[in-house]
Design brief:
Distance between the termini: 15 Å
Mean pLDDT: 83
Radius of gyration: 21 Å
Helix content: over 70%
Strand content: under 5%
Shape: globular
Largest sheet: none
Number of helices: 21
């Protein structure tokens, strides 16, 4: 592929998409949040460790197998996402790939209904397949972002998507938990419906995406007069485009540095997403009321953080916003890890009678505010550093980085908690967020944006 062709595509103006198209794009964030919230974070992760594996009292084997399941699914994304992205850019077939990932997630998630206590292999297989479909779809939908508006508007567009996503997570989980009851072993007969309900929410919620989101116009125009390649030719094209990018990584130095920072940030964040409610269940030993309060408060603060930091990003820059979220996470993880000790200290100094689960709510609100803002600012910054003609491919690398980080973080915690326990091992997140901040300081945002436009 000639450099001049990529430069021409990248230099063309990026007009603002219609409100309906942006809303259709954002609705995929709303719809797929039902999966990550209900299956990964709030409900099925706890059901897997407590009921499916059930190695009480410390659930260390269940925690480890949960880590392995997620890590395997992310490994599949690492192998596939960049090649798929390159093919999607060349053939203008983003929506087809997105639809395939959507169907895979919906069907495999609905099949979680058939998992019974002790059926560990079936549960792990369905989690691997469904989380792969969800995660690769996350990369596919992100590949549309650079075509939705000019670089200076991507922060608010990305933030709107993430905010709408957390609203979706709040609605989905609220309806499900109110209808199914608390997360407990004796309620498994009801909790097994969490898979079909999450699948239904995703199925219906993403319909506006496929009705209103269009294949990027520049790609349709550039591919309109090409003969349709065979499947084998598409694979060769995908590998050739990725190879072309890899030989020119020096041109995209700042994007590479940022992906290095994002690797550490997402390693820490993946631990929080996958183990926060497991931590509350096993370490904090919260009551069902506080479990529900934690979910509601984190979804509200995450939506607010994504939206507000999206607006802030367009004013002060993506890198500064991203760094602010890392500082917020450093404070939040410190508070999470020290919740029992902090509770004792607050009671002693202030004469209070707080319980750890109440202090943990405060830590959760801080973490929730950083949850949406970190992911939104990172996605928008990748969009600003990405040439328009290679958007899906570069977001494939983004997805590869995020999932490789998830494997690193989740497996790291899984192994550490077998030796040291879950409470001490969560300090690994603190190390990751500090490393992410250090690497981010080396990124030159303006130089990276210039490289994406020439």
């Amino acid at each position: 592929m000639a450099d001049s062709q990529g430069a021409a595509l990248a230099s063309m103006a990026r007009p603002m998409a219609s409100r309906r198209e942006i809303f259709g794009w954002a609705m995929f964030d709303l719809a797929n949040q039902a999966y990550t919230t209900l299956i990964i974070t709030v409900v099925f992760g706890v059901v897997f460790t407590r009921v499916i594996v059930g190695d009480s009292p410390d659930y260390r084997l269940g925690n480890l197998l949960w880590s392995v399941s997620l890590a395997v699914s992310y490994a599949l994304v690492i192998v596939i996402a960049p090649i798929c992205g390159a093919i999607m850019d060349h053939g203008a077939v983003k929506k087809r790939f997105l639809f395939a990932s959507y169907l895979l997630t919906v069907i495999s998630t609905a099949c979680l209904y058939f998992v019974a206590p002790g059926q560990i292999a079936l549960a792990m297989t369905l989690i691997i397949v469904s989380n792969f479909g969800y995660a690769v779809g996350e990369s596919f939908i992100a590949g549309f972002l650079p075509s939705l508006g000019p670089p200076e508007k991507l922060g608010r567009i990305s933030g709107f998507g993430w905010a709408l996503g957390y609203v979706g997570g709040l609605l989905a989980t609220g309806f499900v938990l109110l209808g199914l009851g608390g997360i407990a072993e004796d309620n498994f007969a009801n909790l097994r419906f969490v898979g079909p309900l999450a699948a239904l929410f995703f199925l219906v919620g993403a319909i506006p995406t496929f009705l209103w989101l269009r294949e990027p116009r520049l790609q349709r125009a550039s591919s309109g007069h090409r003969p349709v390649p065979s499947r084998l030719a598409y694979l060769r094209i995908g590998f050739d485009r990725v190879a072309w990018t890899l030989t020119r990584l020096g041109r995209f130095r700042d994007l590479g540095l940022f992906l290095g920072s994002l690797f550490f940030a997402m390693a820490g964040l993946s631990i929080i997403i996958s183990f926060a409610f497991i931590y509350g269940d096993q370490i904090i030993r919260w009551d069902p009321l506080y479990q529900m309060l934690m979910f509601v408060l984190t979804q509200i603060t995450a939506a607010a953080g994504a939206f507000l930091f999206g607006l802030l990003q367009d004013r002060i820059g993506a890198k500064r916003t991203y760094n602010l979220t890392l500082l917020l996470w450093i404070a939040a993880v410190t508070m999470i890890a020290a919740t029992p000790q902090l509770t004792v200290l607050l009671n002693r100094l202030a004469g209070l009678s707080l319980e750890p689960q109440q202090v943990f709510l405060g830590a959760g609100c801080m973490a929730g505010f950083g949850l949406g803002s970190l992911q939104s600012s990172a996605r928008a910054l990748v969009g600003r550093l990405t040439p328009l003609g290679k958007a899906a491919e570069f977001f494939g690398f983004w997805g590869m980085t995020v999932k490789l980080a998830s494997i690193f973080g989740i497996l790291g915690l899984g192994v550490l908690q077998v030796r040291f326990g879950l409470q001490l091992s969560v300090l690994l997140c603190l190390v990751f967020f500090i490393a992410a901040l250090i690497v981010s300081l080396t990124v030159n945002e303006q130089r990276g944006e210039l490289a994406a436009r020439i």
